[in-house]
Write a structure and sequence with these properties.
Oligomer: single chain
Shape: flat
Strand content: under 5%
Distance between the termini: 35 Å
Order of helices and strands: H
Number of domains: 1
Number of helices: 1
Largest sheet: none
Length: about 50
């Protein structure tokens, strides 16, 4: 049974031409965008502000 079938909120973003954990490259604009999206998701779904 998938997470969605179990009513778990999931969100997948695929970044073309980037590698796994590219977010460690803080000089990349995409990394900052991705971390911001992660923080927003966590804030919206965990009831705690992770946006900083």
């Amino acid at each position: 049974m998938s997470l969605r079938e179990q009513d778990v909120v999931v969100d997948l973003h695929v970044w073309d031409d980037l590698w796994h954990v590219f977010e460690w490259g803080e000089q990349l604009p995409e990394a900052l965008d991705s971390v911001g999206q992660i923080a927003k998701f966590l804030t919206e779904h965990m009831g705690q502000d992770f946006t900083g």
